[in-house]
Please model this.
Amino acid sequence: MIVPTLPHSNPWESIRALQMGSGRSAIQNDTDEVRLFAFGRQALAAGLRSLPSGSLLVPAYICDTAVDTLPAVGTPVRFYPVKEDLTPDWDWLDQHRSPEDTALLLVHNFGFPNDIPRAVEYCQYASLSLIEDCAHSFLSEFEGEPLGKTGDLAVFCYRKTLPLYTGAGLYSTSGRQLPAGSANTTNTNIWAYRQMLSWAVYKTRSSFLKRFLNRLISRGESYDPREPSGIDRYSRSLMERLSPSVESIRVKRRRNYSALAIELKGMSSINPIKPVLLEGVSPWGFPLRVEKRDELLDRLRSNGVGAWSWPGIPRLLDQEAFSSEARLARETLMLPIHQDIEQFHIDHMVKVLSKWTLEQPIEQVTWEQFHEDLPRTP
Ligand SMILES: Cc1ncc(COP(=O)(O)O)c(C=O)c1O
Model:
């Protein structure tokens, strides 16, 4: 059994996108509302260039690829702590204000809206620009509006939700002048053929075929932060072709998330980070917190489950000063719930997870803990 990490386009969609893409210009229209890039990190770097220069406040629980290259392109970063629920520690931010800071990055982790009202209020009070990181949350909504409509800028990674080779966006709510879109002249037709092969492998559900063809179907990424590139022609056409299906993609992701949440309830040693699926959320994956994360990741992968670890810890993060965020990062594991996941994939993941859980030693409760948990009589 294989449970794919990423969604696929089917051969029909890939062929149509190839045909449409061949007639496209490599650069997008400058008048378009959203500037398209290959990767989210490029969209973020470009957005920062449109703001006054200074340092960017970023959460200490964030992925390395989002921030590691920012100093090299002219923006120093300063990390801020996050609370258990991943909202910014506003008190810490207030106590550690610096005149060098010009913007705050608010990450809507896993597709779940972060503390938007407080972020707006705080950024006004501290004279900071608010950048919403919607890398995981393209298709999520907050109070009936698409996420990313509140801050000064928003960054999206379409390639994390749709089966694209590249695809990220920069959007300005305040009508700010955004940098011109960059060209991407890469010929990604080979990626389209890989998608077709990959689709065939997943349809056969054969782990043997996957192992055999892995090198051919795995997605290679190359990125040079000094050369911002646009979305490639094939991915842009595919994105257009898939846009009528976004509602069904959202529904499938939500259905899969809820099904998994119900099954995982009560499994000890496995703690869903977001146990409740809020209205409007289109989840990126199903995040778990597991002490023996790498052991479970190995187990899942050896059983064909395309689970992954996220986030890679940023190079610049002082892991002692931000020990709880670094620990959470080391213990986060993501399960796939995307639009190509079916009930039999979920059943398989649940089987592997419950077997692993049953093998874990039962946690011994000390007398002090037991005593602490006893209901108190007033
Ligand atoms: C929250 C967040 N922002 C930005 C990025 C960067 O996206 P990309 O890999 O497309 O550059 C990532 C990557 O995982 C991310 O998790």
